[in-house]
Amino acid sequence: MFPKELLSSTMAAISPLLSVKPTRGLVDEKIQIIVRNLPARFPVTLHSLYLSEDKDYWEAFGHYTSDNRGTVTVSEHASVGGTYEGTEPMGLLWSMQPVPGSRTGLRLRKMNVLTPMVVHISVFSGHVTEGFSKQSPLATVVIERWYLAPGVRRIDIKEDGITGTLFLPSGPGPFPGVLDLWGGGGGLVEYRSALLASHGFVSMALEYFSTEKNRASNLHIKYFEKAFRIVQEHPLVMKDNVALFGLSLGTSITLHMAAYSKAVSPRCCVCVSGSHVQPINSPFKDVSEKFQENGSKIRVDEDGCLIWKDIILPIPTDPGLKVDMGRIKCPVILIVGEDDQSWATVESAEDMTQMMRAAGNEHLLTTFRYPGAGHLIEPPYTPHVRASNFIVQPIRQKVTMLWGGYPKPHASAQEDSWEEILRFLQQHLYPSQDSVPKAKL
Amino acid sequence: MSRKVDRVIISPSPLLLIHPSRGLIDEKFSVIVQHLPPFIEITLHALIHSDDGDLWEAFGHYVSDATGLVNVDSNASLGGTYDGLEPMGLLWSMRPVPGSRLGLRLRKKEVNTPVVVTISVYRGHMGQGFNEQTALASVVAERWYMAPGVRRLDITEAGVTGTLFLPSGPGPFPALLDLWGGGGGLVEYRSALLASHGFASLALEYMTPRTSGDSTSHVGNEYFEAAFTLLKQHPQVCGDRIAIVGLSFGASVALGMAVYSTVIQPRCLVCVSCSHVQPVKGSLSDVFADISKYVHNIENRVIWRDLLLPIPTDPTKKVDMGKLPCPVLLIVGEDDQNWPATESAEDMKQMMEKAGNSHLLTTLSYPGTGHLIEPPYSPHVRVSNFMMTQTRQKILVLWGGDTAPHSHAQEDSWKKTITFLEEHLYRTTSVTSQSQL
Question: Do residues B31 and B113 share a domain?
Answer without folding.
Answer: yes
